[in-house]
Queue: 3 jobs
Job 1
Amino acid sequence: MKDIFTAPFVEEMKKTTANMYRLGWDERNGGNISFLLDEAEVGEYLDLNAVKRTIPLGFDATPLIGKIFIVTGTGKYFKNVDADPETNLGIVRIAPDGQTAELLWGYQDGGKFTSEFPAHLMSHMARLSVDPGNRVVMHCHPTYTLAMNYVHELDEKKFTHTLWEMCTECIVVFPDGVGVLPWMLCGTNSIGEATAEKMKEFRLVVWGMHGIYGAGKTMDETFGLIETVEKAAQIYMLTSHLPRVNTITDAQMWLLADRFEITPREGYLQER
């Protein structure tokens, strides 16, 4: 059996959480990541028959029975993951009843997965229904994206269009746009269900006055989606109080769409 501490998926979680903390996206224990793993790969590092304990999920995750995830822990600080992954991370498998998770590794201090894990699983189910390659769900509190929530209308079309205007790459990176939810109580099935519904159409969902959810095939893709939104939001916050002299026009965005062979969300740009 290989050393679990050298597993690529553990290393990737360590590097990503450290980077997100460094960027100020995940203060204290804010933010969480779940990563759908390949069973055969996990089996090279862990005995898949050795279940340490079971943890209630609090909702029905039947469509994900048998799926294995590495997940950040509840109350855990991203800054501590690199030094102590076995306490701050856990590898869990959705049990045959669909109602519980089987702990295969981690949470060695008796902890459990993030309180947002049900919301993550709902988003995984939603994304997998439209993109079988989806593997990652990431939640964080990027500073400028959050600041933008307070001074910009929380309207999906307007919010997305503003972000597209801020940086040439934006429409190329997230042509499907950004979903937006109003403020909702976090850590509940209600916000998880609302996010999952948005995730059927968007890979990015803003939680009003809270943060953002991103989903993707890889850690890099998911991180890059959020990173691009945050850069655009930063440019917006640095310029929104100043007279607008220049902008990226809809006509120019259509040129970008043609050049990079992407399809902007219908109705978000003026017809050419």
Job 2
Amino acid sequence: MVLLPIYNNVIDYPFYIPNIVLIFLFFTFVRYIFFLEYTFLARLNWLKVIFVLTSIPIIFLIAQEVSVFQNIMDEDGFRPYIAHLHTEEQFSMIKYTKNQFIFFGTAATICAVIFPFRMIISVWRAKNKGTV
């Protein structure tokens, strides 16, 4: 639903896959940070350790995608992708696209930084207290 305005108005948007991945990572990390005890991951300590180890490359990949998006917005601009729209619609579409990509990129980065700490705490609790 977040990408529907972009899908309907932007021609050849080059950031569909990174945008979908950022949205997916954000919601997945939030789900595991706040509702870990209700997921399948609650009792799988070995998988939590793997997620802790893979979170560092994920943080760098998220930062790289946001940086690439920001560089294209700053250097080339976004107008070639929305040249068929009227001027007012162009401005609103540029603002919407930039704001939602930066929001989900920043939110996914923050959650990706918090996520390994939550997994470490959960593993510690499982070993020492028997809880999640």
Job 3
Amino acid sequence: MNAGALILAAGAASRMGKAKMLLPFGGSTILTHIITEVKAINPVAISLVTGFFHEQIINSIPDKLVNIVYNKDWKLGMAGSIQTGLNALLHTYPDLNRLFIVVSDQPFLHRDILQEMLDTQVRTGKRIVAAEYGGIKGTPVLFHKYYFETLQKLPGDRGARVILQQHPDDIATVAFSLGEVDIDTPEDYERLCKKLKEQDAERPIQ
């Protein structure tokens, strides 16, 4: 199964005021954790799309298995980052037939969710598999190559969600309750750290 992965990390994180994807998490950073989980499902390639924090991300990601792609037009929105990353993947792997789109601020992303999405696509035959949380369908999302051309023509800052809205009958979902935890503000990160401390406190002493 020739699945690639696109990790979006191009934004300026204006509400956070710093590189939110590089905040500490689980002994590393949120972004390193996400890369580790994506790598665990053995995609044929990973494109990490950068923008505002390009230099900081390059300096923090020593992993040579991740292809870092700079989106010079990152200010124009998510669609451009998707197109930049997808085009880079297809240039190297023209036979790519599936694509994960992952964002860099969902700290609880886990390899089991991604694997379940792959399995669900095979089982249902649906060409889109989206995570479902908080009553919405969102990232991560898995697209069959049928939608690659549509992804390459996305306008502005609408991202891939517009495709989900236009093709509801071609979507299967996978429950990801912690998907609604994302990091946009300092308060979000404080809540995340508090949640992690509570989880550690609840673990039995070995």
